[in-house]
Amino acid sequence: MTPADPGGRFRSTLESGAFTVTAEVGPPRGADAEALVRKVTPLRDLVTAVNITDNQGATVRLSSWAGSLAVMAAGVEPIMQLTCRDSNRIALQASLLGAAAMGIPNILVMTGDHPRFGDHPGAKPVFDMDSVQLLMTARTMRDEGRLLSGRELKPPPRWFLGSVENPSAPPLDFRAIRLRKKIGAGAQFIQTQYMFDVALFARFMAQVRDLGLDERCYILAGVGPVCSLRALSHMQNGVPGLRIPDDVARRIRSVPEDRIAEEGVSICAEIIGELRQIPGVAGVHVMAMGNEHRIPAILERAGFQPRPPASIAGAGNDHAH
What we know:
Blueprint lengths: L8 H8 L3 E6 L7 H8 L8 E4 L11 H10 L4 E6 L5 H13 L4 E5 L20 H14 L15 E6 L9 H11 L3 E6 L3 H13 L7 E6 L5 H9 L8 H8 L6 H16 L5 E7 L7 H7 L20
Helix pairs in contact: 2-3, 4-5, 5-6, 6-7, 9-10, 10-11
Protein backbone atom coordinates (compact mmCIF):
# COMPACT_ATOMS: atom_id res chain seq x y z
CA MET A 1 0.00 0.00 0.00
CA THR A 2 1.40 3.40 -1.00
CA PRO A 3 1.25 6.09 1.69
CA ALA A 4 -0.65 9.24 0.86
CA ASP A 5 1.33 12.26 -0.25
CA PRO A 6 1.91 14.29 2.94
CA GLY A 7 0.74 17.45 1.14
CA GLY A 8 1.81 19.84 3.90
CA ARG A 9 0.80 23.45 4.40
CA PHE A 10 3.99 24.66 2.71
CA ARG A 11 3.14 22.95 -0.55
CA SER A 12 -0.56 23.81 -0.47
CA THR A 13 0.17 27.49 0.22
CA LEU A 14 2.55 27.67 -2.73
CA GLU A 15 0.02 25.92 -4.94
CA SER A 16 -2.66 28.42 -3.89
CA GLY A 17 -0.57 31.22 -5.38
CA ALA A 18 -0.17 33.00 -2.04
CA PHE A 19 3.16 34.72 -1.36
CA THR A 20 4.82 32.20 0.93
CA VAL A 21 7.20 32.82 3.83
CA THR A 22 9.59 30.28 5.29
CA ALA A 23 12.33 30.74 7.88
CA GLU A 24 15.51 28.92 8.83
CA VAL A 25 16.72 27.85 12.25
CA GLY A 26 19.82 26.00 13.34
CA PRO A 27 19.49 23.09 15.78
CA PRO A 28 21.40 23.50 19.06
CA ARG A 29 24.93 22.37 19.83
CA GLY A 30 23.63 20.05 22.50
CA ALA A 31 21.12 17.34 23.27
CA ASP A 32 18.21 19.66 24.03
CA ALA A 33 15.41 19.67 21.46
CA GLU A 34 13.51 22.20 23.55
CA ALA A 35 16.09 24.83 22.61
CA LEU A 36 14.96 24.41 19.01
CA VAL A 37 11.29 24.45 19.93
CA ARG A 38 11.80 27.74 21.76
CA LYS A 39 13.20 29.24 18.55
CA VAL A 40 10.36 28.13 16.30
CA THR A 41 7.38 28.71 18.59
CA PRO A 42 7.27 32.51 17.99
CA LEU A 43 7.27 31.78 14.23
CA ARG A 44 4.44 29.27 14.26
CA ASP A 45 1.71 31.71 13.21
CA LEU A 46 3.95 33.85 10.97
CA VAL A 47 5.62 31.44 8.55
CA THR A 48 4.40 28.47 6.58
CA ALA A 49 7.34 26.18 7.30
CA VAL A 50 10.75 26.24 8.97
CA ASN A 51 13.99 24.83 7.57
CA ILE A 52 15.93 22.64 9.98
CA THR A 53 19.57 22.79 8.93
CA ASP A 54 21.87 19.79 8.58
CA ASN A 55 25.12 20.63 10.40
CA GLN A 56 25.29 24.00 8.67
CA GLY A 57 28.76 25.39 8.11
CA ALA A 58 30.09 21.85 8.62
CA THR A 59 29.67 22.21 12.39
CA VAL A 60 28.15 19.52 14.59
CA ARG A 61 24.60 20.16 15.80
CA LEU A 62 21.50 18.19 16.67
CA SER A 63 20.55 16.22 13.57
CA SER A 64 18.09 17.71 11.11
CA TRP A 65 15.71 14.74 11.26
CA ALA A 66 15.52 14.92 15.07
CA GLY A 67 14.99 18.68 14.90
CA SER A 68 12.28 18.20 12.28
CA LEU A 69 10.41 15.77 14.53
CA ALA A 70 10.71 18.17 17.47
CA VAL A 71 9.23 21.13 15.61
CA MET A 72 6.47 18.96 14.12
CA ALA A 73 5.47 18.02 17.66
CA ALA A 74 5.34 21.75 18.44
CA GLY A 75 2.91 22.40 15.58
CA VAL A 76 5.41 23.78 13.05
CA GLU A 77 5.88 22.24 9.62
CA PRO A 78 9.54 21.38 8.94
CA ILE A 79 11.64 21.47 5.80
CA MET A 80 14.34 18.94 6.58
CA GLN A 81 17.69 19.77 5.03
CA LEU A 82 19.94 16.93 3.92
CA THR A 83 23.54 17.43 2.76
CA CYS A 84 25.76 15.10 0.75
CA ARG A 85 28.90 16.00 2.70
CA ASP A 86 28.68 13.50 5.54
CA SER A 87 26.98 10.40 4.11
CA ASN A 88 27.29 7.97 1.24
CA ARG A 89 24.40 6.97 -1.00
CA ILE A 90 23.35 4.13 1.30
CA ALA A 91 22.98 6.41 4.33
CA LEU A 92 21.38 9.21 2.30
CA GLN A 93 18.68 6.90 0.95
CA ALA A 94 18.11 5.52 4.45
CA SER A 95 17.69 9.07 5.78
CA LEU A 96 15.21 9.87 3.04
CA LEU A 97 13.19 6.74 3.84
CA GLY A 98 13.28 7.55 7.54
CA ALA A 99 11.98 11.07 6.93
CA ALA A 100 9.09 9.74 4.85
CA ALA A 101 8.24 7.06 7.41
CA MET A 102 8.08 9.68 10.17
CA GLY A 103 5.82 11.97 8.14
CA ILE A 104 8.32 14.75 7.41
CA PRO A 105 6.67 16.34 4.35
CA ASN A 106 9.44 18.49 2.86
CA ILE A 107 13.06 17.69 2.01
CA LEU A 108 15.66 20.20 0.82
CA VAL A 109 18.90 18.75 -0.48
CA MET A 110 22.27 20.42 -0.91
CA THR A 111 25.84 19.38 -1.51
CA GLY A 112 27.11 20.95 1.74
CA ASP A 113 30.18 22.90 2.88
CA HIS A 114 33.53 21.15 3.00
CA PRO A 115 34.54 19.98 6.52
CA ARG A 116 37.61 22.23 6.45
CA PHE A 117 35.30 25.20 7.00
CA GLY A 118 33.74 23.74 10.15
CA ASP A 119 34.58 22.63 13.67
CA HIS A 120 36.11 19.30 12.57
CA PRO A 121 38.45 20.34 9.75
CA GLY A 122 40.17 16.95 9.85
CA ALA A 123 36.93 15.06 9.17
CA LYS A 124 36.87 12.95 6.03
CA PRO A 125 34.46 14.45 3.47
CA VAL A 126 32.18 11.94 1.76
CA PHE A 127 30.51 13.72 -1.17
CA ASP A 128 29.52 10.39 -2.68
CA MET A 129 26.82 12.38 -4.49
CA ASP A 130 26.13 16.03 -5.21
CA SER A 131 22.82 17.82 -4.79
CA VAL A 132 21.65 17.17 -8.36
CA GLN A 133 22.37 13.45 -8.04
CA LEU A 134 20.61 13.31 -4.68
CA LEU A 135 17.57 15.09 -6.15
CA MET A 136 17.44 12.52 -8.94
CA THR A 137 17.76 9.74 -6.39
CA ALA A 138 14.94 11.09 -4.22
CA ARG A 139 12.70 11.60 -7.23
CA THR A 140 13.36 8.03 -8.40
CA MET A 141 12.59 6.67 -4.94
CA ARG A 142 9.33 8.61 -4.81
CA ASP A 143 8.05 8.44 -8.39
CA GLU A 144 9.39 5.05 -9.50
CA GLY A 145 9.49 3.32 -6.11
CA ARG A 146 13.07 2.17 -6.57
CA LEU A 147 16.46 2.62 -4.93
CA LEU A 148 19.57 3.51 -6.91
CA SER A 149 20.38 -0.19 -6.86
CA GLY A 150 17.13 -0.88 -8.71
CA ARG A 151 15.52 -2.66 -5.77
CA GLU A 152 11.85 -1.95 -5.30
CA LEU A 153 10.54 0.09 -2.39
CA LYS A 154 7.32 -1.08 -0.73
CA PRO A 155 5.80 1.36 -0.12
CA PRO A 156 7.63 4.20 -1.87
CA PRO A 157 8.23 7.41 0.07
CA ARG A 158 6.45 10.72 -0.45
CA TRP A 159 7.89 14.22 -0.05
CA PHE A 160 7.93 17.73 -1.53
CA LEU A 161 11.49 18.15 -2.87
CA GLY A 162 13.59 21.29 -2.89
CA SER A 163 17.10 22.58 -3.41
CA VAL A 164 19.08 25.82 -3.27
CA GLU A 165 20.55 28.33 -5.71
CA ASN A 166 22.81 31.38 -5.50
CA PRO A 167 21.89 33.96 -8.17
CA SER A 168 24.81 36.20 -7.11
CA ALA A 169 27.57 33.65 -7.69
CA PRO A 170 29.68 33.90 -10.81
CA PRO A 171 29.27 33.25 -13.64
CA LEU A 172 25.96 35.10 -13.36
CA ASP A 173 24.65 34.01 -16.76
CA PHE A 174 25.01 30.37 -15.72
CA ARG A 175 22.80 30.51 -12.64
CA ALA A 176 19.42 30.13 -14.38
CA ILE A 177 20.81 27.30 -16.53
CA ARG A 178 22.08 25.58 -13.38
CA LEU A 179 18.66 26.04 -11.83
CA ARG A 180 17.10 24.36 -14.86
CA LYS A 181 19.33 21.34 -14.23
CA LYS A 182 18.13 21.09 -10.62
CA ILE A 183 14.50 21.40 -11.64
CA GLY A 184 15.03 18.71 -14.23
CA ALA A 185 16.50 16.51 -11.52
CA GLY A 186 13.38 16.85 -9.37
CA ALA A 187 13.40 20.17 -7.45
CA GLN A 188 9.85 21.41 -6.89
CA PHE A 189 10.89 24.46 -4.87
CA ILE A 190 14.09 26.50 -4.60
CA GLN A 191 15.37 28.69 -1.79
CA THR A 192 18.15 31.10 -2.70
CA GLN A 193 21.18 32.52 -0.94
CA TYR A 194 20.74 35.93 0.72
CA MET A 195 19.60 38.51 -1.83
CA PHE A 196 20.60 42.06 -0.95
CA ASP A 197 21.02 43.15 -4.56
CA VAL A 198 17.42 43.29 -5.75
CA ALA A 199 18.35 44.54 -9.23
CA LEU A 200 20.67 41.57 -9.75
CA PHE A 201 17.97 39.19 -8.54
CA ALA A 202 15.43 40.79 -10.88
CA ARG A 203 17.77 40.09 -13.82
CA PHE A 204 18.13 36.49 -12.66
CA MET A 205 14.37 36.11 -12.45
CA ALA A 206 14.01 37.53 -15.97
CA GLN A 207 16.27 34.71 -17.19
CA VAL A 208 14.26 32.24 -15.13
CA ARG A 209 11.02 33.41 -16.76
CA ASP A 210 12.57 33.32 -20.24
CA LEU A 211 13.35 29.63 -19.64
CA GLY A 212 9.86 29.00 -18.24
CA LEU A 213 11.32 27.76 -14.95
CA ASP A 214 8.96 29.80 -12.76
CA GLU A 215 6.13 27.66 -14.16
CA ARG A 216 7.92 24.43 -13.22
CA CYS A 217 9.23 25.32 -9.75
CA TYR A 218 8.43 27.64 -6.83
CA ILE A 219 11.26 30.12 -6.17
CA LEU A 220 11.70 31.68 -2.72
CA ALA A 221 14.25 34.47 -2.43
CA GLY A 222 16.58 34.31 0.55
CA VAL A 223 16.61 37.35 2.83
CA GLY A 224 17.98 38.19 6.26
CA PRO A 225 19.09 41.01 8.54
CA VAL A 226 22.65 42.24 8.99
CA CYS A 227 22.80 42.74 12.74
CA SER A 228 26.41 43.83 13.37
CA LEU A 229 29.51 45.16 11.66
CA ARG A 230 31.12 41.79 12.26
CA ALA A 231 28.27 40.08 10.41
CA LEU A 232 28.59 42.58 7.57
CA SER A 233 32.31 41.89 7.26
CA HIS A 234 31.72 38.14 7.28
CA MET A 235 29.05 38.35 4.59
CA GLN A 236 31.22 40.56 2.41
CA ASN A 237 34.46 38.65 2.84
CA GLY A 238 33.67 35.18 4.13
CA VAL A 239 30.69 33.99 2.08
CA PRO A 240 31.57 33.19 -1.54
CA GLY A 241 29.10 34.51 -4.07
CA LEU A 242 27.23 36.76 -1.64
CA ARG A 243 26.94 40.36 -2.84
CA ILE A 244 25.95 43.29 -0.63
CA PRO A 245 25.55 46.52 -2.65
CA ASP A 246 27.60 49.52 -1.52
CA ASP A 247 24.50 51.54 -0.63
CA VAL A 248 23.30 48.81 1.73
CA ALA A 249 26.72 48.51 3.37
CA ARG A 250 26.97 52.30 3.77
CA ARG A 251 23.53 52.44 5.35
CA ILE A 252 24.51 49.82 7.92
CA ARG A 253 27.78 51.56 8.74
CA SER A 254 26.11 54.98 9.01
CA VAL A 255 24.14 54.24 12.18
CA PRO A 256 25.48 53.94 15.75
CA GLU A 257 26.59 50.45 16.68
CA ASP A 258 23.68 49.93 19.05
CA ARG A 259 21.23 50.62 16.21
CA ILE A 260 22.76 48.40 13.54
CA ALA A 261 20.50 45.44 14.27
CA GLU A 262 17.43 47.65 14.09
CA GLU A 263 18.59 49.09 10.78
CA GLY A 264 19.28 45.59 9.51
CA VAL A 265 15.70 44.60 10.32
CA SER A 266 14.37 47.62 8.43
CA ILE A 267 16.52 46.94 5.38
CA CYS A 268 15.42 43.32 5.31
CA ALA A 269 11.74 44.28 5.47
CA GLU A 270 12.22 46.79 2.66
CA ILE A 271 13.95 44.18 0.49
CA ILE A 272 11.05 41.78 1.03
CA GLY A 273 8.69 44.48 -0.21
CA GLU A 274 10.77 44.93 -3.37
CA LEU A 275 11.06 41.20 -4.00
CA ARG A 276 7.28 40.81 -3.83
CA GLN A 277 7.01 42.98 -6.93
CA ILE A 278 9.22 40.74 -9.10
CA PRO A 279 7.20 38.40 -11.34
CA GLY A 280 7.80 34.73 -10.68
CA VAL A 281 8.86 35.08 -7.05
CA ALA A 282 6.73 32.67 -5.01
CA GLY A 283 7.89 33.88 -1.59
CA VAL A 284 10.84 34.60 0.66
CA HIS A 285 13.02 32.49 2.91
CA VAL A 286 14.17 34.38 6.02
CA MET A 287 17.58 33.44 7.43
CA ALA A 288 18.66 35.05 10.70
CA MET A 289 21.02 32.59 12.35
CA GLY A 290 21.56 33.62 15.95
CA ASN A 291 18.92 36.33 15.50
CA GLU A 292 15.81 34.26 14.95
CA HIS A 293 14.05 36.38 17.57
CA ARG A 294 14.14 39.27 15.08
CA ILE A 295 12.18 37.45 12.39
CA PRO A 296 8.72 38.44 13.74
CA ALA A 297 9.70 42.14 13.61
CA ILE A 298 11.00 41.75 10.05
CA LEU A 299 7.77 40.16 8.87
CA GLU A 300 5.59 42.65 10.74
CA ARG A 301 7.39 45.57 9.07
CA ALA A 302 7.06 43.83 5.72
CA GLY A 303 3.29 43.77 6.21
CA PHE A 304 2.66 40.15 7.16
CA GLN A 305 0.07 39.39 9.80
CA PRO A 306 -0.04 36.30 12.04
CA ARG A 307 -2.55 33.62 11.06
CA PRO A 308 -5.47 33.15 13.44
CA PRO A 309 -4.73 30.11 15.65
CA ALA A 310 -7.78 28.29 14.29
CA SER A 311 -6.24 28.25 10.80
CA ILE A 312 -3.18 26.24 11.77
CA ALA A 313 -4.83 22.95 10.85
CA GLY A 314 -6.54 24.41 7.77
CA ALA A 315 -3.46 24.50 5.60
CA GLY A 316 -5.22 24.20 2.29
CA ASN A 317 -7.22 27.41 2.76
CA ASP A 318 -4.39 29.59 4.05
CA HIS A 319 -3.86 32.56 1.75
CA ALA A 320 -1.94 34.84 4.13
CA HIS A 321 1.51 33.37 3.68
